[in-house]
Design a protein that fits this description.
The structure is a single chain. It is built from 19 helices and 27 strands. With about 625 residues, the chain is of the alpha+beta class. The chain has four domains: about 240 residues, FAD/NAD(P)-binding domain (3-Layer(bba) Sandwich); about 160 residues, Polyamine Oxidase, Chain A, domain 2; about 100 residues, Guanine Nucleotide Dissociation Inhibitor, domain 1 (Orthogonal Bundle), CATH 1.10.405; about 35 residues, Rubrerythrin, domain 2. It has a seven-stranded mixed β-sheet, with helices on both faces. Strands 10-2-1-17-27 form a five-stranded parallel β-sheet, covered by helices on one side. Helix 3 links the parallel strand 1 and strand 2. It starts with 7 loop residues before the first helix and ends in a 6-residue tail after the last helix.
Length: about 625
């Protein structure tokens, strides 16, 4: 088959931002202010329309499913969300745990104590998340900025070497020059390698995700292979880029595709502000997830928990409805965090699958166990990779039969390679999820952290671990910090006024510890913390959360990703497992794919005036256009 480029007409139809991306960024220049605002303001996206008589059923109440629900409810659709677990938010969930912390803590004696907030790890909202920020600003969902002068880009190697990428302080376009110099001067990079490192980064800055040849090339090799081809030293690959791979993708350079780092570098290349981060107001469940659910309900939507979709019901080549799982008799509990079922009478003080506290294990009622059917006009699968694979496997024969008869719509694709509709659903079953373990420690006191990470800019709240087997990005959640108005607070307010250190690390190399008991996993992390922080005291409490649904990027994964529009006309896929011809990653991708799916449904309903403008992710840059004259991936 011959290669086709994406149809310009189709891209424009999906939002004004699409045309600008296709045009190479030139049309962004008059509207550049949108890309420097904390919450980009796009007037035409502010729609609240009356009921239109159309219904949408969304499978999965994670970030993308909720965002689809909000946007569709605002435009008059009757929205139903089916969530497998007992809580919303997917990988952005937060919950309470009564066991974390020393047993003699006075607050634990209070009958009203709900427990300390737990999350699936640190969630950063980068400056290049223009579409997520636009969505949050439109619906008044808050973000918290780090204090001025603070940067999260601090590195600590196992040999004790510390490095830091400071925030640029120069004016206007010169920030890029300063940032380039900062990259070259990282202490963890061996002498004489700074220029070679910047040459490699410059190649990656020019990566064009919408160029099929470039995208498929970077998808075909690991980053370590790519780095060697570009002349990077082992030191640069192992100490700088491996820490970036662990921080961003919970993976390492010898297994993740070069596409991972290439895409990230392209997104931070336009402006120094693209590397700035904000955090969700804590806890995200209360400040972001629940408010989205409340908005959907306020517009007539319905959310059903303990509703794992098992069967897709078809009629005349379309989805007619969904049937939830039928659970047999006997005692069955479901973890409200990970959604897994626990059979039998065994008592568990923690979920045996994810580690959530026993208070999150819910007994299912007879009604919860019954299969239920749901109908709608349109259906959106907003599941993570394990969930999508399970659903597709259970319905693979019917889905494949319909896909075989579906026409190949060349307007919807950039490359026809591997895009035979019959392979669409089979490819979903071949995508790879990633296990990530999150370990939280409770230490009394904080002087040991302040002593180790003190600097002229204050005390670093985190470090990227390089050279360690178990430590990943490590953060002190309880560290007091000074806000821009001079006030002191803690990263998590519940620890304000307490002289403690709540230290979290994210284990990316799970294969090294997955066979071990939880206590042994925690001890291994602590032993490496003692190498990083020699004065660290014994820990008083720990919490281990096992997260098994992160989207992995092995070589060859990208070409298997499903397009938002499936071969079944009224079934769409969304979330970070999908493909859209738009450079975006992580939570920005969940938002872009949600808006993309909504636009496709609006187009099917003849509601073009209600479509959402999708912005470019990252800042348009003359600097990158200049580099493009000399470099290519």
């Amino acid at each position: 088959m011959t290669e086709k480029k994406i149809s310009r007409k189709k891209f424009i139809a999906l939002g004004a931002g699409g045309a600008a991306v296709l045009a190479g960024g030139a049309s962004f220049l008059p509207a550049r202010a949108i890309y420097t605002d904390k919450y980009p303001d796009v007037a035409e996206n502010k729609k609240e329309l009356p009921p239109n008589g159309k219904s949408v059923c969304i499978i999965g109440g994670g970030l993308s499913g909720l965002q689809c629900g909000v946007e569709l409810a605002a435009r008059g659709f009757q929205v139903t969300i089916l969530e497998k677990s007992g809580s919303l938010g997917g990988k952005l969930k937060s919950w309470r745990d009564k066991n974390f912390g020393p047993d003699d803590l006075p607050i634990k004696k209070d009958p009203s104590f709900a427990g300390f907030v737990r999350e699936h790890g640190l969630h950063a909202v980068w400056g290049f998340y223009n579409n997520l920020r636009e969505f949050m600003g439109r619906y008044k969902f808050p973000l918290v900025d780090l204090p001025k002068g603070h940067s999260i880009y601090s590195f600590l190697d196992k040999d004790g070497t510390r490095s830091h990428l400071p925030r640029p302080t120069w004016i206007g376009p010169f920030t890029r020059i300063q940032q380039t110099l900062n990259f070259q001067n990282l202490e963890l990079i061996e002498k004489g390698q700074g220029a070679a490192m910047m040459s490699a980064i410059s190649h990656l800055f020019t990566f064009d995700y919408t160029d099929t040849e470039q995208r498929e090339y970077l998808d075909s090799v690991t980053f370590a292979e790519y780095g060697r081809q570009k002349g990077m030293s082992k030191n640069v690959i192992d100490k700088f880029f491996d820490s970036i791979a662990e921080m961003a993708y919970f993976d390492n350079v010898t297994s993740c595709s070069a596409l991972t780092i290439g895409l990230l570098m392209q997104l931070i290349s336009g402006s120094a502000a693209d590397m700035e981060i904000s955090l969700f107001a804590s806890p995200p469940d209360e400040t972001f997830i629940v408010p989205m659910a409340d908005y959907i309900r306020s517009r007539g939507g319905v959310i059903h928990f303990n509703s794992e979709v098992e069967k897709i019901l078809f009629k005349d080549g379309r989805v007619q409805g969904l049937a939830t799982q039928n659970i047999g008799p006997g005692k069955v509990r479901r973890c409200r965090i990970c959604g897994e079922l626990i059979y039998g009478n065994d008592n568990h003080d923690r979920c045996p699958f994810c580690g959530a506290g026993g208070e999150n294990l819910q007994n299912l009622s007879a009604d919860d166990k019954k299969a239920k059917n749901y109908t709608a006009d349109y259906f959106i699968c907003a599941l993570d990779i394990p969930g999508a694979r399970k659903l597709v496997y259970a319905n693979i024969d019917e889905l494949t039969e319909i896909a075989k008869k579906a026409p190949l719509n060349e307007d919807d694709i950039i490359s026809i390679k591997n895009q035979d509709p019959a392979s669409y659903f089979q490819n979903i079953t071949k995508l790879h999820p990633k296990d990530v373990y999150i370990v939280d420690f409770w230490f009394n006191g904080s002087d040991f952290w302040k002593k180790r990470f003190a600097s002229s800019r204050g005390t670093d709240m985190n470090f990227f671990a390089t050279g360690f087997d178990h430590l990943g990005i490590t953060i002190n959640w309880s560290l007091p910090r000074e806000t821009d108005d001079g006030k002191k607070t803690a990263m998590l307010k519940e620890y304000a006024g307490m002289d403690v250190s709540i230290i979290e690390t994210q284990i990316a190399k799970v294969h090294l510890v997955s066979h071990l008991p939880d206590e042994e996993i925690v001890k291994k992390c602590y032993e490496e913390l003692k190498i990083a922080i020699p004065d660290i005291p014994p820990y008083q409490s720990w919490y281990l959360n096992k997260w098994r649904n992160y989207t992995r990027y092995l070589p060859g994964d990208e070409i298997k990703r499903p397009y938002t529009q499936s071969p079944v006309d009224n079934l769409l896929f969304t979330g970070d497992l999908t493909f859209v011809p738009h450079a975006c990653v992580f939570m920005e991708k969940t938002n872009v794919t949600a808006k993309w799916a909504v636009n496709l449904i609006l187009e099917k309903c003849g509601m073009d005036d209600a479509k959402i403008t999708i912005l470019r992710s990252g800042t348009p840059s003359a600097f990158v256009k200049f580099l493009d004259l000399f470099y290519s991936v």
